Every structure is written in structure tokens, then in C-alpha cells.
Amino acid sequence: KVDLGPLPKGWEMKQSSNGQIVFIDHTTKSTQWEDPRLQASNKPTFQMKYSRDYKQKYANFCLKLKPSHPVPTNLDIPVRRAGVLEDSYNAIMNISDTERLKSRLWVHFEGEHGYDYGGLAR
What we know:
Elements: E1 11-15, E2 21-25, E3 30-32, H1 54-65, E4 74-79, H2 84-93, E5 104-109, E6 115-116, E7 120-121
Parallel strand pairs: 4-5
Antiparallel strand pairs: 1-2, 2-3, 6-7
């Protein structure tokens, strides 16, 4: 069970004869089945300060997207045909700079030269 803290001032919790829990508000002299600590009116609300400065927000957002250092456009991964899975996995896992993983992956088979543009062209 989650501890919701004490009931609001003027409230009491009782169990009815059939075992159901009833919440009694002595201030308004009313009863209800729902726990008053769970009602939305009792929850603190957070309101963000409104600002119309969209251009500044957009410029700040774009600055945070740009990497702090240039990222190479291609990430070369040399693999053997007999060990494609192991070689490519090891090559990717050994990369310490995660920004490099955002660049284009280029897989090179050892001993084979060619370009793969949807099919190997020699």
C-alpha cells in the first residue's frame, strides 16, 4: 500500500458494517467512497511561466541539438564474411564516442572491394 499521508483537516475514515471504507467530511457533513487525498483539487499543481519568445526558444533548442565537435559522416566497420555478426557487434561495441553511431554505417568486407548501393557493384 502507498502511504498517502494524513487525511485533510475535518475528515475521518471509517469502515462500514459490510467492510467498505467510508470517508466522512465533518466540515460539510457529507460522506463519500473516494479517498479525499486522491482528488485532483488536493494535488499541488505546477504552472509553467508563459513566454512568447518563440525565436529564442527555437534558437536554444537548435544549439542543444548540434554536437559540440564535428561528427564524421561515415562510420567504417571492417568485417569478415565468416564472422559478420561477431565482427560488426564488436566494432560497434568498441566505439566509445556515441555521437559517431549517429553517422552513416559503412560495412567493408575484408579482401573485397566494391560499393554497396542496394547491391554490390564491382
